[in-house]
Specification:
- The chain is α+β, with helices and mostly antiparallel strands.
- The protein folds into three domains: 162 residues, 3-Layer(bba) Sandwich (FAD/NAD(P)-binding domain); 153 residues, D-Amino Acid Oxidase, subunit A, domain 2 (D-Amino Acid Oxidase, Chain A, domain 2), CATH 3.30.9.10; 106 residues, Helicase, Ruva Protein, domain 3 (Orthogonal Bundle).
- Helices cover 34% and strands 23% of the residues.
- It contains 17 helices and 18 strands.
- A hairpin with a 2-residue loop joins strand 13 and strand 14.
- Helix 2 runs parallel beside helix 7 and helix 2 packs across helix 10.
- The longest helix has 18 residues.
Amino acid sequence: MSLHSPREQTWRRVVDHPVPWDVIIVGGGITGVGILHEATRRGLSALLVEQNDFASGTSSRSSKLVHGGLRYLAQGDLRLTWQAVQERERLLDELPGLVEPIGFLMASYEGDKLGRRLMRTGLRLYDLFGAGVKHKPLSAADLQMLAPRLRLERLTGGFWYRDAQTDDARLVLRVLLDALASGAAALNYAKVEELLSNAGQVTGVVLRDRETGRVEHVRARVVVNATGAWADALRANVGEKAVIRPLRGSHLLFPSWRLPVAQAVTFRDPKTARPLFAYPWEGLTLLGTTDLDHHESLDVPPHISDVEASSMVEAARAAFPGISLHVSDAVSSYSGVRPVIGTGKADPSKESRDHVIWNESNLVTVTGGKLTTFREIAREAVDALGLEAERRVAKRGRFSKPPTSVHWGELDALERRRLAGRHGPWTPALVESARDGELTRMPDTWFLWAELRHAARVERVVHLEDLLLRRVRAGLLLPEGGREFLPRVRAICQAELGWTDERWDEEEGAYLETWARQHRPPTEATHVPAPRASAPVA
């Protein structure tokens, strides 16, 4: 590692920090970076540490939706839905190009338990919570025109409504980089080995650099546990019992021509009645999601099972009978583990998705919640710290704006909007660093080759998988994780990363192994039982 790399400079800052940090945040997902962003804007000295890469857990493996959650409205959780819809509108306004609107189609069939009248009532409430965007009732003929491949048998009509989508990993990076620009510090591949304590109160962490092996004792006024599904492991250090019920959600990505949908279409699994969706994302079609108890070790990254994949594809074939879809048609797959507080419900989908905040011996645990509401969660969490700062910053929670003057070259309006939303004030540096031919898209993606160079240069890439699975999503969007383009990736990024030929070869092999283990589509099951939740967590 270069002595002048941003990561090494941060380590020096941690070692030389003269007094305890106001707050150390453990966990580099959307909850952790949201708290880092909020704490820093309030004038607190804040350090975030993540044992793997930023967004490498659930926050790069979500359904990519910024939404109010009609399902939660149907469960009677009006507060969560209202809060989420309000945040959806704020994010659409503040991050165009990164958070974008998407239309949803909901079909209604004869015999549906959730009748057309009840669906309309729920959507009217959804409208009231939003910013004047109204749902539209659709006749069967309307729906057939908008989704011509949808099953027509017993179709009575449906509805259109609006939500939003994002690139979840990029959202994490956008919030993180904003916080760093405001004075925060953050380290990836830095593992908390144990908590420091005095008189029964947590006072800091023992931190190990997973790349070099160095160990440091780092003090703080408060430690925040924002590790999501991993929260119980840190809570065990202060004698608290486990409460997290890890739930796995899995997804498949198909070429858009193989599962063509112009906007999101929701439908139900005929075996379980669980709602599923298919919608366009980054030029492909995303199919999801499952909601199953995850019993494997959280130390092993999750992956989709044969039964999960086959069950979703079977449900999609029932919803789109004219499409002979198979698991083998998928380009890639991914699974994430949701941190849900277990209450003993037999059906995992019935567990609340609301967040909780606990202060246990000066270890403040923040877990649960939705991607959409990360800023509200962060505000509540920082309030709960009970820390006073020397200064407070006005307009807290807003993002830094991209410059108005950028030498765009030949980039079209959509590419400009996308870059500005994803990279904000760093957009000019990205465009200016591009060499000949790099302001063009990687084949079959919306990503520019220049984004690879920029990420390798300034976005704290430690391993090749950080670059191709999270900074730029080529690993999910291209067959075999983009294997055929690795020579050009190497030509662009190797010098920026300062890697020897031997190091690059090692990284490439490790990346392809990771892709095969975590993201290769599974084999289609010959017999597809309905996925069942096992015994609930008490």
